[in-house]
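Dear colleagues,

For the upcoming journal club I promised to circulate an example of a predicted protein-ligand complex. I picked one with pyridoxal-5'-phosphate because it came up in last month's discussion. The inputs are reproduced below in full, followed by the predicted structure.
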Amino acid sequence: MSEAQTIAEGAAGRLAGVRERIAVAAKKAGRDPDSVRLIAVSKTFDAAAISPVIEAGQQLFGENRVQEAQGKWPALKERHAGVELHLIGPLQSNKAADAVALFDWIHSIDRDKIAKAIAAGMESQGRAPRLLVQVNTGEEPQKAGVAPGETESFVARCRDEYGLKIEGLMCLPPLDEEPALHFALLEKLAKRLGLPELSMGMSADYETAVAFGATFVRVGSAIFGARG
Ligand SMILES: *Cc1c(COP(=O)(O)O)cnc(C)c1O
């Protein structure tokens, strides 16, 4: 077997393992396993590494940089119908139109300038990716996201000033803190605002996120292996 084939089989096997663990965590939390959707985070991996994961049945993929995604996904999407692409990384307003053109979901709406640029892109392209607001639950100065206390007013502005329908919230907890506290906060905020989608949980903590109501988990290295 070639090295590429070995890597591909490894990813497909790990994908099955992650799916199984999500199902177990969902049942333990009294949730329908189908209410949790797995996003395979393929950032830094190329089309040769991604294709076998699509062939193993995975349809939702996440990327954190628009430019990187533009380099590999248009061709992959053409070859594989049904792939759904999620932008999970911070967005710059000069990339907003490109993001609207390529992505099916954008998880990282976090300021007025971006909301406005996304709305303009949707208007001019007649395309409507589904939208989540990123919340900086740890209030880390270097991290993207709106502060928890400003989420409600920002979601309202997205609706009233920019005509954007926000369907849920996303967070990326601080690396050195207990993620459960952040997942609980995000769940509480989403419930209060009546938003159905919760994007939270990565390779190290997706089962915890499922226990707190995640509807999307974003898992990279546990499927693709360590990033170089
Ligand atoms: C890279 C990334 C992930 C996946 O991280 P892993 O630890 O590899 O599972 C999830 N969410 C965001 C926003 C990311 O940038």
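Two points we might discuss: The chain has a mean pLDDT of 95. The CA atoms of residues 40 and 61 lie 5 Å apart.

See you all on Thursday,
B. R.
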